[in-house]
Design a protein that fits this description.
453 residues, mainly alpha, Growth Hormone, Chain: A, 19 helices, 79% helix, globular
Length: 453
Amino acid sequence: MSGLPIQKQPSGMLEFTLVWAGQIVSVLASSMTQFALTIWAYEKTGSATALGVVSTSFIVPFLLFSPFAGVMVDRYNRKLMMMISDLTAVIATVGLLVISFFGELQIWHLFIASAINGLGNTFQWPAYSAAISTMVPKENYSRANGMMSLIESVPGVLAPILAGLLLPFILLKGILLIDLVTFFVAIGVLMFVAVPQPAQTIEGQEGKGSIIKEAAYGFRYIFKRQGLLGLLIFFICLNFVIGLSSSLFSPFILSRTVNDSAALGAVQSAFAVGAVIGGLLISLWGGFKRRMTSIFIGEALTGLFCLVLFGISRTLPAWIAVSIVSAIFPVFTNGASQAIWQAKVAPDVQGRVFSARRMIAWSMGPITPILAGALADYVTEPAMRSQTWLASTFGWLVGTGPGSGMAVQFILTGFAYMAIVLVVFLFFPVVRDLESNLPDHDQLPKAAPVANP
């Protein structure tokens, strides 16, 4: 009688770094594509609502299929799931490339491509998040998550610059072709790197069953742990509030600068520079020992800088300065939150739990981009250009020209954001003291070895 082999947790920062490097190259090209398509879409439609629909098209497939993707991440080889997510993105990119080549690209094509990318992301995020738990030691979770944040921020610095330089010469088709090539670079790196599967735990054994039962187990796991559920609800509230203005980032800058794509690129790059700084800091430092401290401080400063001060700013230098500072804080909060979940959730159920977690956290995702765009197009923007109480209250601060209504949305959501952080910190100890009250997964009993028949 022999038990299943239990893999020792490796100190695999080298292997993780190789995967990280492949992804950062791929995401750089994808960010160039996103920048180019945003410019194209806004110039074609001039509508913040249309851009909101593109975002919603990405989120809806994620919400629908995420629980089942989490089951597949836990059931099957996680490296294979990571490859599938990249291959799904290849399909969307090839489709846009072919349509663009024949000069037939329409805004609704972006909706479809965004939906396909959202489907691929249902596998990517839980697979990569769960892989960290088996590739690196627990004490390096925050650093690994800091490196993952650089996958978004470093391309954010370079992508607008590179896309702006290359777009006049290689056009949208050339940008899409570069994106396609880099997907295969990322897949190639994954083929030569070992991604260990997790050891079995009691939690994993309890969650076994049909695909429906296993998908539901991710939700049950969260609902049975008040601290994790409270933390999740906290972020749902913050995501809803910030979504009412953050979806307007591109149309806000474009409307304030008369569709100046260079200005938009500069602000995006500045925001990415701040995120790079934050990612480097947390990669080297690891954040506060008490991760909830990082979350509360970081979220309060996010509301102040990323929303209030960003909305008040009216010049390119001011936007750049505020963007650099404001982008540092979300890196700390997201990295700390991710490290808490990776430490508290058993590794062999992380695919399901992380998928359920993100599905719940993004539950308002399909609503907020469209709601934000509709508020801007039909409420705040018209109100700021006429004799209304909104214009008389905020006109002296943000002006009454194009973009002033969106500026008001940034300011109001910023104050609401900070109020939520303060209320949870003062009155919800189940969230504030989560780290002390809920043990880490490596402090829980392991599953007994299963005998071979």
